[in-house]
Design brief:
By secondary structure, the protein is of the alpha+beta class. 38% of the residues lie in helices and 18% in strands.
């Protein structure tokens, strides 16, 4: 739940917004912004299966946006809690060409 509370403080275009935290009985619920896009691991897998690299411009654009979101998160106290959870399936490619 610490990560969810921290998520409520993170307001950045490259970070999914956390809207609400609730506890129903013994279960915690987190309402988050819906982001339409492909998980980065899917994008990587598709290109790997086709034996094609992700176009350099697209890869650099994705990495810049990821780094901008991470840099913002690290400016907040306790943001190091986020790093263990940064996995390709958690990253969405919303504008990939």
């Amino acid at each position: 739940m610490d990560e969810a509370r921290l998520g409520r403080l993170l307001r950045h275009p490259n970070i999914v917004a956390t809207h609400e935290l609730n506890k129903i009985g013994e279960t915690f619920c987190i309402a988050m912004e819906y982001v339409d896009g492909w998980p980065l691991d899917r994008l990587i897998r598709i290109h790997r299966d086709r034996n094609q690299p992700i176009p350099l411009v697209a890869a650099l654009s994705l990495m810049i946006e990821i780094c901008e979101g991470l840099a913002f998160a690290h400016q907040l106290n306790g943001a190091s809690l986020l790093l263990p959870y940064l996995e390709p399936y958690l990253v969405k490619a919303v504008s990939y060409t």
